[in-house]
C-alpha cells in the first residue's frame, strides 16, 4: 500500500513530461510536409510545410492528435499565434481550417486549446493539393465507361446530352497484375442549341478519395493543364446513387455539398457491350434463378455459360455483374468478370475467337498469351478481370461455393490457385439458394415440445393474439410451444408459440383450430419438446397470446414448446411455442385442437375425430404460427445445417439453422438472423448470428402418427428413400460368401473326424 502513492506520483510526472515534449518539441508529421497549392479567398496560394514550420505561420509550438487523420497545431511567428487544424484526406489532399493572428500579453505563452477556442466552427475548409502528387488507383472512385449528360449551373440552365459524351476509367496494361488504373478521361461533346457547351477530352490523374457520411469525394489533377487554378478539381458522388456526380469548377472541395447541387453536374448511364466468348460449361443443374446470401441476397441468374448477379444498393437502383465461364478443372471454374460499371469489348485472339473492333476509332494493343496466341485489348475498354469459383455439387435447392480474388491475368494456375481464396484457417462455403425452392424431406421430423431463448422469439401471428377468455366448452389442460413435422412427406415445419393440449371424453385430440397444410418434405422428423434460447426465439403467432384461463372443459396438465415433423414423407416442420398437454382416463392425447385421421392423411377438424394407422397431414382451414419449408440441409465443419423457407417472414424468407441431436429424444436447434449461418454459430446459445435457440424434447403419445426422424446431413446427395435399409440374412456375412463358409465348415469337420480316427 505504501508503493501506491509513489506510483501515482510517478504517473503524474510522466504525464507532465509528455505534455512538455509535445509543446516544446513540435515535429510536423512527414505526411504533411511539402509544397501545397490552395485557392483561398479567390487567390492562388502556395504553402510550404517542413518538419518544424509552416509558411506565413511561423514555427510549430504545440501539436494535438485527435485522430490519425485529424491534427491540430499551434504556430508562432513573432508575437502572433495561429491555430491550424488539418484533415488528412489522402497523401495528396489536405483540408485545413485556422484562425488569424492572435496576440497575448508579453511573456505569456498560451496553450493550443486556448488559441483554438477562437476558431470559428462554421468556417469552411480550405482544400490543399500536393504539387508533387503521387497518382492513386481510380477503381475506388470511378470505374468503367459511362455516357453522361452535363450541366454547368453558372453557364447554362439546360442539360447537354450528346451520345458521344463518355467517361472512361479503365485499367492500363503494364505489370503482372495490371493494377495501374490511375487515370480516366472525360470526353465532352458540344450540343446544338447550347452555345456554352463545348467539346474536347480531358485526362485526369486520381489523387485519392474519401467519405463524409454518404458523400464520396475524390480529387483529380488535369494532366494536360499547366495553370494551377485549372489543374486541380474535386468530384463528389453518393454511395447509394451512382447515377449523378458533382464536379467543382474551382480547385475547391468545400463547394460540393451533394452531387445534384454541385456547380457542374453529370447525369451518368453505364454503357455495356459484352462480347466475351465462353470457354467452358457450368453444371446443368445450376441453371435457373438463385439468391446469393453472401452478397446482400442478390438475384442471380445462371445458364450453362454465364452467371448474372444483380444487387440492389438502394430502392429503385440496381447494379449488375456478369461472369463468363472461361476454363474449368475439377470443381474450380475460372470466370471472366464483366464489372458492374462500364462496358467491354472482347479481348480477341487470333484463331478461335472473332476479332471485335469499334469502327477503326479505337487503338488495339497486341500481346502474347500463355500459349503464344495474340491477345488484343482496345483503348477505352472497361475493367474486365478474372475470378475463380469453387463449387460443391448441387444438393437440394442449394449451391455451396467460395470465390477467389479478382485478377486481370487470364491464367488458370494463377487465378484458381487455392491461395487466392483467402479463406484462412477457419471458413465455410457461401450459399446460393433457389429463388423458387423445392421442399425436401426435413432432417428433423416428429412432434416436439420446446422452450426458446433469445431476443427474437417466435410469437403468434394472429392479430391481437389468442383469446384469453372465455373459450366455450374447452378446458386447456396444458399449454406448450409446439414444433411439428407431421405432414406426409415431412417437408414443412409447423411452429405454434402457444399450443393448448386437451382430449375429449373419448381421449381424442381436440382443438379450436382445424388445420390442413400443403405437404412438403423435411430432413428431420419426430415429435419433440424443445427449449429455445437466443435473440429471435419462436413466439406464438396467436394475436394477443393464448388464453390462460378459464378454458372450459379442458384441464392443462403441462405447458411445453412443441416441434413436430410427423407427416409420412417428413417434409413439414411445425412449431408451437405454447402448447397445452393432457390425457384422458385411457392415457390418450388430449388438446383443444380436434384431430381427424383418415386412411391416407392426418387432418384437423374442429368437430370430429377419427383415427387410422397410416399417416398424418393437416387441413388448410387453420394454420400454425409458423410454417417453414425445408429447402436443404448438409453437414460442414462437423456441424449440421438446415435452410428453411417462410413466405411470411418479413425479414428474410430464407433462414439458416444449426441443429444437433443431444439425446435419444432431444434435439437442439438455433436459428440465424438471416439466410446464412455464422461460422461460429452453435446450438448452445445466442450470439454469433443466432437469433433464437430451441431445446426440443419429443413428446409423441401412444396414438400419435408422427414418428421421430433425424438426419445429420452427412450425405445430402442421397436419393429419396435411401434411408430404407435392407438386411440380407441369407447372403452370408459382409466378408464371407456362403460358399466360402460351407467349404470352411466342411474342412473343420473333416479335420476333427480325422483326429478321432
TrEMBL record:
The keyword Heme does not apply. It comes from the Eukaryota. InterPro entries: DUF7042 (IPR055470), DUF7043 (IPR055471), DUF7044 (IPR055472). Residues 136-269, 520-679 form the DUF7042 domain. GO terms for biological process: wound healing. Residues 380-427 form the DUF7043 domain. Residues 1-24 form the signal peptide. The chain crosses the membrane at residues 735-753. Keywords: Membrane, Signal, Transmembrane, Transmembrane helix. Residues 25-117 form the DUF7044 domain. The keyword Protein transport does not apply. This is Uncharacterized protein. It comes from Homarus americanus (American lobster). The lineage of its organism: Eukaryota, Metazoa, Ecdysozoa, Arthropoda, Crustacea.
